[in-house]
Design goal:
elongated, mainly alpha, 192 residues
Length: 192
Amino acid sequence: MASESKAIYQPKDAISASVRSTMIVGGAGLFLSAVQNSLTRQNVTGWGVITRTGGTIAAFAAIGGGYEFARVAAANLREKDDAWNPTIGGFVGGSIVGLRYRSFPAVLGFGALLAIIQGTFDYTGGKMTGFARDGEVDEYERTEQVRRNKRRPIEETLQELGEGRGIYGPGYQERRAERLKKRYGIDIPQPA
């Protein structure tokens, strides 16, 4: 009974996912390589993006492809889609970063660091904006509901802040006209 209530895992294509990720992250590496090439002091040609700073492109592409392949392959092998898959992918991607330093402690350290970051990020929801909201509720209605819940009565606001600065209570125009008449003798016509 309990096994029927769980969703059945659908395997994903690890090769196509890693190729797509390699292209996307490799494109980001190409952009950074172009920035590095443009900031060099020597006068290098446009081919310097490939010849001089091309290692950045290769490193980014390898990190992205390795991460995505390990993440999807781990999910397929484990037949689960949970926070351990990005952790495993993060370790592979971080290890590729550590390979540039040609030191085994760097490989393990960068692998562990990226594994912890990716695993924690996925475990806590996997979004920078917080958890997903209910898709059935209209966003405008939701914000209006939040405003209604947090709205304070005008009397309380006036008592704490006083009138002015865009905050005016009921009957303000009449009190203002009366105050100006008393103080300066000026008649202010009331709006109809």
